[in-house]
Amino acid sequence: MKEVHRFMLLLSLCLSLSACIALSANTCPADLEAKCGDDSSGDWKGEFFPGIPKIKYEGPSSKNPLSYKWYNAEEVVLGKKMKDWFRFSVAFWHTFRGTGADPFGAPTKSWPWEDGTNSVDMAKRRMRAHFEFMDKLGVNRWCFHDRDIAPDAKTLSETNANLDEVVELAKELQKGTDIIPLWGTAQLFMHPRYMHGGATSSELGVYAYAAAQVKKAMEVTHYLGGENYVFWGGREGYQTLLNTDMKRELDHLAAFLQAAVDYKKKIGFNGTLLIEPKPQEPTKHQYDWDAATSFAFLQKYGLTEEFKLNIECNHATLSGHSCHHELETARINGLLGNIDANTGDPQIGWDTDQFLTDISEATLVMLSVVRNGGLAPGGFNFDAKLRRESTDVEDMFIAHISGMDTLARGLRNVAKLIEDGSLAELVRKRYQSFDSEIGALIEAGKGDFETLEKKVMEWGEPTVSSAKQELAEMIFQSAL
Ligand code: XUL
Ligand code: CO
């Protein structure tokens, strides 16, 4: 195993080195000795994306890949500026820590600013690249795990010091801009200590470590002005029930989340706490399986007032639902808080985290968002990564532009559907038999069985109308 690690490290160094050779004059040599500009710390302050302009709206006829065709931030659609409907966010872990590695292959990306190390200097340089990226893209929200942005060290206090140093830089870079985190989170799945889970680990010491890590991650999210805080339990679940006390683990998870609520209040953090459901991967069975399971858990433990849900489309399909189903389940229960915008692949059974480019899917997503009146203080976080084979720096921009344009088309299509009105009318008509005296009685919870039996005797066999599915699909399709 050690050999494999050494090989991977060597390979990634080689890839970075070949990138060094290909560097243009404006680009910082990707090693800490090079010290670009006047900065002797290696914390380079040069331009990271030379040749990439600020991305502007050019309209649907534009052939320029580095422009928006459908997303026009300031344009008002359905009574709100597009930027306020979406509140787009860049996911630091995919965009700046994604290497293209997969279980079978080495990293494929060799971004010019990367030096192959996981040092604090490298973390700071990467953070500067991230801010230039957001500025050029015109996106003012970002999401992070604590360990994406700063390296782990030997002790928790050393790790926290690393985090503080990078967070201080992020705070400085945010100054004078409207950029803030959409949400922060603690990475409770990578380190071997979390192999049995964090809050649901069988080891008390690990539960405590996870608590300390979440405490710090909440503090830095608050310090950076973050609007939400996410709990995704990739290791909170089980591999087999034979060795698992499920009730005890779920009780521990609830106690952990309650402690997070208490700490949030103690530090005056007003952000929304979000649970991100996912059925499996990496764990065989994850407790936050889907929106309905998470809702039942929150209800059982009296936490519905304190949490909302962060729905991720690829997680929805992994749980056997459509993204639209998960969004509607969250919405009708008052829990739709945020969307991790991505999509899976219909032929692949795992979390491929692709940028959403399906206009029909985007329209369904936006139907829920519009019905929800938007997502604020949540938004759309691009929890999506470039394909392993996409290795140009400009691909980072193209992927986000394409994802943003797709959702913008979804919003515009919803506006068409609402203006047209026939889909809403079809649904209204379908339930119109309940717009009656007896219907009102039933909906008020007063439709007792004796009364209804009497009515059946009086009415005889009911008439049953067509569901008009094909008509509904025709109307939907005509808006795309
Ligand atoms: C994993 C996933 C995470 C969460 C944050 O599938 O979606 O990146 O969004 O931990
Ligand atoms: Co996610």
UniProtKB/TrEMBL annotation:
Q: Which SUPFAM superfamilies match?
A: Xylose isomerase-like
A single GO BP term for this record reads: D-xylose metabolic process
- EC numbers for this chain: 5.3.1.5
Please tell me which top-level EC class this enzyme sits in.
isomerase
Task: Using the record, list the residue span of the signal peptide; answer none if the entry has no such feature.
Answer: 1-24
Q: Which GO terms describe its molecular function?
A: metal ion binding; xylose isomerase activity
The question of whether Isomerase is a record keyword is answered with: yes
Spell out the reaction equation it catalyses.
alpha-D-xylose = alpha-D-xylulofuranose
Keywords, A to Z, come to: Carbohydrate metabolism, Isomerase, Metal-binding, Signal, Xylose metabolism
Q: Which InterPro entries match?
A: Xyl_isomerase-like_sf, Xylose_isom_bac, Xylose_isomerase
Instruction: Spell out the HAMAP family in the cross-references.
Output: Xylose_isom_A
Family statement: Belongs to the xylose isomerase family.
Return the protein name.
Answer: Xylose isomerase
What organism is the protein native to? Rhynchospora tenuis
Q: What is the lineage of its organism?
A: Eukaryota, Viridiplantae, Streptophyta, Embryophyta, Tracheophyta
